[in-house]
Amino acid sequence: MLAGQFSYRAEMPRQFPKLSISEMDEQVRILAEKVFAKVLREEDSKDALSLFTVPEDCPIGQKEAKERELQKELAEQKSVETAKRKKSFKMIRSQSLSLQMPAQQDWKGPPTASPAISPATPVLPGATSQPTPAPYAMPEYQRVTISGDYCAGITVEDYEQAAKSLAKALMIREKYARLAYHRFPRTTAQYLGHQRVDTAPLEEVLPDFHPPPLPQEDPYCLDDAPPNLGYLVRMQGGILFVYDNEKMLECQEPHSLPYPDLETYTVDMSHILALITDGPTKTYCHRRLNFLESKFSLHEMLNEMSEFKELKSNPHRDFYNVRKVDTHIHAAACMNQKHLLRFIKHTYQTEPDRTVAEKLGQKITLRQVFDSLHMDPYDLTVDSLDVHAGRQTFHRFDKFNSKYNPVGASELRDLYLKTENYLGGEYFARMVKEVARELEESKYQYSEPRLSIYGRSPEEWPNLARWFIQHKVYSPNVRWIIQVPRIYDIFRSKKLLPNFAKMLENIFLPLFKATINPQDHRELHLFLKYVTGFDSVDDESKHSDHMFSDKSPSPDIWSSEQNPPYSYYLYYMYANIMVLNNLRRERGLSTFLFRPHCGEAGSITHLVSAFLTADNISHGLLLKKQQQLVSGIF
């Protein structure tokens, strides 16, 4: 119904649209490489990309810039062509704004309602405007209307250039979001559709989520797996390709799915990076964001009390019975300090002689674990547990990671906060179930805890699914996110992986197998029903000298102990998620979102990569500090 309302009729292309590299694209690529190199050189400094920014404490430069803009505007006022273009822009803007207002026949008000002219109604020269009645049900808010020449302060040429650049950036993001079945704002897609004069409106694309089982249904039922397909999967250049049979594999004719093209992706990323150096676009974004912030502040000042009054007038509704979802929580930190301390003391009091670990062939009891650490759980306090990540961990990833070790002991982390240990993750499952039970009792709280898949072994996925089913961790108030730490360099230095491609294969190949042949992987197929998406986590401030491009070594060649850069990780994770989502959508299964940690530290290129590949990001703290352009496109 909604899709029909917004005229999204055309089918999404089933193949990845490859670009033919033009001379202009090559120039953009060269400019982007300069930006990339500049960022890499100044990654640890506070003034990243200072070459392309003007310090605010430079009054002479500001005065000269204003004088140049004034001269350009004075010259434009004398131009007849400029006047025509401005009038055209006004009509386009008026027509677009009128789409946001409800139709007159949809407004139900009393016959005595006082008429009011909508500021969004287009007014043609020489035409008489019909007054439009204000909606009767609309709250009595004070409205802020900006009249006059909305291009004031910026030339028409600069406005055109900024509009084209921003529209192109949004179209690039829309393309990658649609291909991976990520969400894209409906209103933005509607207006971008007006720019495509040569194509039909696109169908709205949304991710597929598995509905929660009914109360009488068994959430651990393994009998509803669809039939096997017998497709073959092979990794090529770090991306998994699906083949219908052996013959198609020999002919190198993969199954009809959109497989990404690295050269096209790097060209698109180059366009976004080159946009950073575009002066008119930066100026427009800076002015636009300041305008919106000021407009919101004014609205808040005028209507804050009216909004509070309307909010509190809703019957049977307050903050405590509004449904709340915590989308950024790690499973190993989902319990509070007191909960963890209470659980540790309880297990020590009730089962001190239980075998909980094995070392060098010798079995170790819970009492022996604490004796080896020279501590008595009875003496533990919340402060001595030291698992609270406070202000002292800000921008200190090393300190943040240490907070996952209770009392600074990795032995307790392995015992209580891991899914793979001697007990099969029993203690961890019990604590997670206690947290989930509290959410269910509150009724209005939900969460998406993150569980880790490292890519060391293909058995990680089956083990995690087995932990989920064996300990019955399902809760109607919980969905799961899979986080992939970017620690290939650690595994490679320990000779656990031959190259980066093997890590990608260990992460994604079990998912492809469970999607193609779910009858043979029933436990993993069941667990994936309750997985929402993927996350990429690690210290973003780690410096990398490598510049990701289409000339970068492919994952099967990346065998050094150097860790790939952030952009490299994001592209290959997105590429495999995109292929997997299209395969699962074809089978009628749930799809996954890509929601990486991004923008907490590091360079601006992290945000650019996530702008193309991610459904949304966690953190994004650098958006306040980085250029207005990056904040604007986000």
UniProtKB/TrEMBL annotation:
GO terms for molecular function: AMP deaminase activity. One of its GO terms (cellular component) is cytosol. It holds the Pfam family AMP_deaminase. Keywords: Nucleotide metabolism. The keyword Oxidoreductase does not apply. Coiled coil: none annotated. The keyword Protease does not apply. One of its GO terms (biological process) is AMP metabolic process. Residues 110-121 have a biased composition (Low complexity). Transmembrane segments: none annotated. It comes from the Eukaryota. Residues 104-136 are annotated as: Disordered. Belongs to the metallo-dependent hydrolases superfamily. Adenosine and AMP deaminases family. Homotetramer. This is AMP deaminase 3 isoform X6. It comes from Castor canadensis (American beaver). The gene is Ampd3.
